[in-house]
Write a structure and sequence with these properties.
Distance between the termini: 59 Å
Shape: globular
CATH architecture: 3-Layer(aba) Sandwich
Low-confidence stretches: 1-7
CATH topology: Rossmann fold
Number of helices: 10
Number of strands: 9
Helix content: 40-55%
Order of helices and strands: EEHHEHEHEEHEHEHHEHH
CATH class: Alpha Beta
Strand order of the largest sheet: 6-5-4-3-7-8-9
Radius of gyration: 19 Å
Structural class: alpha/beta
Number of domains: 1
Length: about 260
């Protein structure tokens, strides 16, 4: 019997473009943008890159302009569907969707898939903002509104612009990047303060202890900065922290519209 090898070929999405097999370049768009080695042909190509970057901003802003109040949920793409963390993400997203929030994720597998699934099954709006990566598998099947970016910094801007809260489940480097990006922007007043909730007290305890006992004690951040972060284990508590904060800020009117 002949096996259809097409189903086993690698696939990469680059914005609206799909590439498979030998057509996949060895580097990503971000990598080529940031690499200053080699000939000076970047003098001629960078203006075109600027146009492509501008197009990604236009597409992202245009797609989500009427999204309404939303929460971004982050966490590891490696989380298995059988894990308690996957179920937690489902329950949190479902609870937030029933409370009137759209759910935004990175659109991939693991925690992202769980959150999109929870939102979709609760009748909410499920958004996925994907990114071109060497081994990226595309958007998960629970995404209702999806966009795939070439550039990380454009994607981050869209996350920040259209989120009124961040929920962060256990994850790796990418999750840490998203967490500290949000903390930095809130701390410095670059964005309006919104709830940032870490889910899983046992997972985050070591990091929080270091922030308190080392970073804060040595004066690198103030004790008040540590109050930017909430910690919760129960999905209902996560929903309550976010809705209470928004009620206090007067965003409840938008949820009721």
């Amino acid at each position: 019997m002949t096996v259809n090898s097409d189903s086993h070929r690698r696939e990469r999405r680059q914005g609206p473009v799909t590439l498979r097999g030998k057509q996949i370049p060895p580097t990503t768009t971000d990598q080529r943008l940031l690499d200053r080695r080699g000939p000076a042909d970047w003098v001629h190509t960078d203006p075109w890159r600027v146009m492509r970057i501008q197009a990604e901003f236009v597409e992202g802003f245009g797609l989500l302009a009427e999204l309404g109040i939303a929460v971004s949920i982050f966490g590891s793409a490696r989380t298995l569907a059988t894990s308690p963390e996957y179920r937690q993400a489902e329950d949190i997203a479902g609870g937030l969707a029933r409370a009137g929030y759209a759910i935004i994720t990175g659109g991939g597998p693991g925690i992202m898939e769980a959150a999109n699934k929870g939102a979709a099954e609760a009748g909410g709006v499920s958004v996925g903002l994907g990114i071109e990566l060497p081994l990226e598998m595309g958007l998960n099947k629970y995404v209702d509104i999806g966009l795939e970016f070439r550039y990380f910094f454009v994607r981050k801007t869209v996350f920040m612009k259209y989120s009124q809260a961040f929920v962060v489940l256990p994850g790796g480097f990418g999750t840490m990047d998203e967490l500290f990006e949000a903390l930095t922007l809130v701390q410095t007043g670059k964005i309006t303060r919104f709830p940032i909730v870490l889910v899983g007290s046992s997972y985050w305890s070591g990091l929080l202890a270091w922030l308190r006992d080392t970073m804060s004690t040595s004066g690198k951040v103030s004790p008040l900065d540590l109050e930017l972060v909430h910690v919760a284990d129960d999905p209902a508590e996560v929903v309550r922290i976010i809705t209470d904060a928004h009620n206090h800020q007067g965003l409840a009117r938008e949820l009721d519209d």
